[in-house]
Amino acid sequence: MNSSRKNIPKKVIKTFFTNWRRLKICQLNAIATALLFLFIPLTFFAQNNTDTLKTNAEVNPYFEKKDTLLNLKLSIYDLDERFEIAGSGFHYKIQPNVTLKTIFFLNYRFLSVAIGFAPKFIPGNGDTEIKGETQSFNLDINLITKHWVQNFQYNYTNGFYLANTSDYESPGWEEGKDPYIQFPDLRVHSFRGATSYKFNPNFSLKAVRTQTEIQTKSAGSFMPSLVYSYYLINNESGNIDQTSSQRSDNFEALAAIWYMHTFVIKKRAYISFGLAPAIGYGYTKLDTRIGTDHFISYYNEPIFRLNEQIGIGYNAKRFFAGFVLIASQSRQSQGDNSIIQNNMLTTFQVFAGYHFNAPKFLRKNFN
Asked: What is the pLDDT of residues 248-258, one digit of tens each?
């Protein structure tokens, strides 16, 4: 490896720590597998109980409640996630070595729990020799009531690579053959929460998010949201040969206004869309460690973000399926605007699931 290549990772990491904010990565470990084997026996046990679909006392002509049924859902994500940092004389595109992800959902009443993973046997997830290895884990919890929606997320990602390595390598570098510049020690822990209020009670967010309700008449609603995040980024390896490393603690708070609408097609099929501009502020504490010395820097900047969502689905008494396209773009500047960071996320999700009768103990405890 030539000397210029050796210096590139240090420059990229420094800029990445200073400016990088947003990450949403999904992965599963052995805990998720254990939970899956726990859920499967519960669903077979639930079949011996009476159908609880007809026990709802509340009737709304705009949607049909199915949240007393236990809902298991499998989603496949086609992820296109890029983090671009540009400035005078440099342009870095940093991303994890993950393309397709699988997420298991358990939905019941107002509660939704999701655990995700990225199987290496799927094409695009296993070329570790060229792009390096990415390890990640995701836990997602949603609480959806008549008006209030609360979301909690935890994400962990370890291992990134420079997607535009060709811009910094000699002309002899060949894509798909030569390894990318990799950052195997770069780790990110992220905690995210979102609190939202849905104005229109006739619009069912559960119908498009957890499929525990069926929208029977077209409806839409404004939904203001407060999104708050904390990200911990660290590239300390524990190797005694490592002479320097960095850690950044990042805080974000954004206010967004969602508008979501569902168009119903013959009661069981639907088309939904959503749009949400957001504005907020970010704060970063950067700790640069050189030997035993620590150099602390602080950064503050405004954040602008736009989120879009469109989906098509079919929700019958037992079976449901569909797909959702989600896109997000954010832009923020560093200090005197000499460095501009653009984060872009495009997710294409295909999902399918089945409604089971809930076990008696589950119905009793939730009631």
From this structure: 888 999 999 99
Q: How many CB atoms lie within 10 A of CB 70?
A: 24
Give the SS3 label for residue 20: coil
- Regions of the chain short of the pLDDT cut 70: 1-58, 79-88, 119-126, 240-242, 332-344
Side chain identity at 226, as an amino acid letter? L
Q: Which domains are assigned to the chain?
A: 3-366 (2.40.128)
CB 212 within 8 A of CB 107: yes
> Which phi and psi angles does 199 have, rounded to 5°?
-75, -45
The first and second tokens of residue 86, run together, are: 């540009």
263-300 as b/e: b if 16+ CB within 10 A? ebeeebebbbbbebebebebebebebbeeeeeeeeeee
| Residue 315 near residue 279 (C-beta atoms within 8 A) | no
Nearest Cα to Cα of residue 32 among 99, 128, 106, 98: 106
- Taking CA atoms, 128 is separated from 125, 181, 269, 328, in Å, by 8, 12, 41, 27
DSSP 87-111: ETTEEEEEE-S--EEEEEEEEETTE
Over the Cα atoms of the chain, what is R_g?
23
DSSP label of 24: -
Question: What are the tens digits of pLDDT across the range 159-209?
Answer: 888 888 888 777 778 887 888 888 888 888 889 999 999 999 999 999 999
Distance CA 140, CA 156 (A): 12
Question: What do you get for the CA distance between the two ends of the chain, in Å?
Answer: 64
Rounded CA-CA distance 114/103 in Å is 7
Surface-to-core class of residue 3, CB atoms within 10 Å of its CB (0-12 exposed, 13-18 middle, 19+ buried): exposed
